[in-house]
Known about the structure:
Oligomer: single chain
Order of helices and strands: EEEHE
Strand content: 25-35%
Low-confidence stretches: 1-6
Number of strands: 4
Amino acid sequence: MLVVARNLSHLxxxxxxxxxxxxxxxxxxxxxKSTAVLRGLQDALAPKARLDIFSxxxxxxxxxxxxxxxxxxxxxxPAFGH
Length: 82
């Protein structure tokens, strides 16, 4: 419970609301250090705050793990109309 004083002669008790945070990792990699940090923060913040980690999988983002043989070459330019 949180004690809120409007003035010295009147105290009011209000339930604390839990802070909610959204975590976005900038990496899609399985061994992402950014995602690992967010997972560690979830435990460290509880129970004072709730950290929800939103997965970016399914969004059209760059993933270096999936480049394989088709990785873009440095300085390569697309051919337009030729």
